[in-house]
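User: ok so my PI wants both of these folded by tonight, can you help

Assistant: No problem, let's get them done. Here's the first:
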Amino acid sequence: MAATTYDRIRRLILDSELDGAASLTEATLAERMGVSRTPVREALKRLEQEGLVERSGRGVRVRERSPEEILEIYEVRVVLEAAAARGAALRRTPLDLSRLEALHEQMLSVPDLAERVRSNTRFHQALWRASHNATLEDVSTRLISHLHRYPHSTLAYPGRWDQVLAEHQAIVAAVRDGDADRAAAASSEHMTLARDTRLRMFALEMDDA
């Protein structure tokens, strides 16, 4: 029950269905979930540890989206993606490389934004797997979920898709060559540019609000 309640509240947060400005009490959430307060309390503790909610008075509230949060997320993601690329260059199998090359090739002809987002996710998941580091893959997966609170993909930013394709190509080439330093640098640059794009998009969103 606790795990189910946690998953449900977490999904409401990621889908922006809980008001970030309002204080959420255990009683209110328990009534909404149709459960007792105990699984809600346990779920909120886990969500606070993940940084999705924060204490506010006698309750909690969804952590507000902010430039500071974007910087925090990408500070970690730059490191993780560089480590994944480095590990992939050192430990990838022929199958790993074939998968990365095939996914990159498929991305060259994807016209639709929604499919671009999905294919980009598949590419990064394949890179994590190619690193053969299960912990890195698990942490990266959980970190990415925080970005779901930001409704617009960076791939929608004008010109960003072509940049992404070029950046992915550089990562794949370095992994293919077994050049760990080059792979890590290419992946770090890729995530840094994604961060800068995310910050620009957030600023535009705030200007339009």
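One down. Here's the second:
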Amino acid sequence: MKRRNFVSLLAFALWTGAAFGAEGRITHSDLAEIRQVIHRQIDAFRRDDAPGAFALVSPGVQHSFGTPERFLDAVRIAYQAVSRAANVAFLDLLVMSGEVVQPVQLTDPSGGVWLAYFSMQRQSDGSWRMNGCHLAPPARPISA
């Protein structure tokens, strides 16, 4: 199962394309902005603020969904742990094949712990937006 999750994450990173050139670097300021963008989007989801949440995703994601309402509806259905996160904890930022990925541990309202991998994309104005999210279900211990 772990291998499948890793393969899914790797495929996700390759699918979204390189948002971060090899010549670039992530600064402390970038890291703070990336985390702020994610916090702002999660807060927008909690308030059911479709335009606010939609404004924080990349133009490509916006184009894919078309409207803020469609985007919010999709998140509510497929990413409930993100849209209704009771607790948010940022893990160490990853750069995979040039892709900037911010892992976040989320606790859903029922206490389930999830890992969300937010693909981040630097915009032409230097700001950061989300370019996708891979949500890994809560781990289930297996007794040996």
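The beta strands are 87-90, 94-96, 99-107, 113-122, 128-136. The longest strand covers residues 113-122. Good luck tonight!
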